[in-house]
């Protein structure tokens, strides 16, 4: 499980940057942030699986995406 304020990045950057459901401006914010975001909140569902709220900041604004533990990794 990840912790609040931890720097993370998506395991599959290409899948995120090519996500057709993500608006172009959202993709640009993630790109501008170098695909590195900050965990701002962690919620645990009833089944025990965590939802990690990751915020990306770039010149074009701020974007928050939600990931499962297996979809992100600690940014080095």
Looking at this protein, list some descriptive labels.
76 residues; alpha+beta; five-stranded antiparallel β-sheet; 18% helix; 42% strand
Describe this structure as you would to a colleague.
By secondary structure, the protein is α+β, with helices and mostly antiparallel strands. It contains 2 helices and 5 strands. It has helices at 13-17, 24-32; strands at 7-10, 37-44, 50-58, 61-68, 72-74. A hairpin with a 2-residue loop joins strand 3 and strand 4 (61-68).
Largest sheet: 5 strands, antiparallel
Report the count of strand segments.
5
Number of helical runs? Answer: 2
Strand order of the largest sheet: 4-3-2-1-5
Structural class category? alpha+beta
The backbone outline, from C-alpha atoms, is: globular
| Unreliable residue runs | none
| Helix proportion | 10-25%
Ends apart, CA distance between termini:
17 Å
Strand content: 35-45%
Order of helices and strands: EHHEEEE
Mean pLDDT: 96
In short:
This is DUF4926 domain-containing protein. The chain is of the alpha+beta class and 76 residues long. The chain has helices at 13-17, 24-32; strands spanning 7-10, 37-44, 50-58, 61-68, 72-74.
Describe how the helices and strands are arranged:
Blueprint: E1 7-10, H1 13-17, H2 24-32, E2 37-44, E3 50-58, E4 61-68, E5 72-74
Antiparallel strand pairs: 1-2, 1-5, 2-3, 3-4
């Amino acid at each position: 499980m990840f912790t609040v304020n931890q720097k993370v990045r998506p395991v599959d950057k290409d899948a995120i940057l090519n996500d057709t459901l993500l608006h172009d401006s959202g993709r640009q914010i993630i790109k501008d942030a170098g695909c590195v975001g900050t965990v701002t909140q962690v919620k645990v569902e009833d089944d025990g699986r965590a939802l990690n709220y990751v915020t990306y900041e770039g010149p074009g604004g701020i974007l928050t995406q939600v990931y499962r533990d297996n979809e992100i990794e600690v940014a080095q």
